[in-house]
Amino acid sequence: MKDLPKDKKIILFDGVCNLCNGAVQFIISHDKKDIFRFVALQSELGIAICNYIGVDQTKIDSIILYHPGVAYYYKSSAVLEIGEDLGGIYSLAFVFKIFPEKFRNYLYDYIAKNRYKWYGKKESCMIPTPELKAKFL
């Protein structure tokens, strides 16, 4: 895809999910190396990226980490890759790679299935503050 920053990793997230929005805020505050950019899955660009990489976003209940021209990850693998990129203590999450992906994704899916019930849902996608606008595509 053209017009995507090649030197950034793009996190596609559920823009109406409170848990996902909290995770985005957490990542932004800990992204000291300015690695990530964010796109709501429901947005035009989010849909275009999913189509480009061949992921049906209507059938995936997950966060997606997309490194343009390199790879993409979803579910627990995306979370572990993000933790590794954040560095410091968060890179320790990578030890969970010792567990089979099927097991990790079972836990991920359980949380994803219940996220609206546990954390709630917004009526619309988050509008970033002017300070954060540069982090969103």
Q: Can you give a write-up of this model?
A:
- This protein has 137 residues and is of the alpha+beta class.
- The protein is 39% helix and 13% strand.
- The chain has helices at residues 18-30, 44-53, 76-86, 101-119, and strands at residues 9-13, 36-40, 64-67, 71-74.
- Strands 2-1-3-4 form a four-stranded mixed beta sheet, with helices on both faces.
- A hairpin with a 3-residue loop joins strand 3 (64-67) and strand 4.
- The protein is globular.
- The model has no long low-confidence stretch (mean pLDDT 87).
Principal-axis shape: globular
The class by helix and strand makeup works out as alpha+beta
How many β-strand runs? Answer: 4
First-to-last CA distance? 13 Å
Number of helices: 4
What pattern of helices and strands is seen along the backbone? EHEHEEHH
**Regions with little confidence, pLDDT below 50 for 5+ residues:** none
Give the % helix.
25-40%
Mean pLDDT over the full residue set: 87
Neighbour order of strands in the largest sheet: 2-1-3-4
In short:
The protein has four helices and four strands.
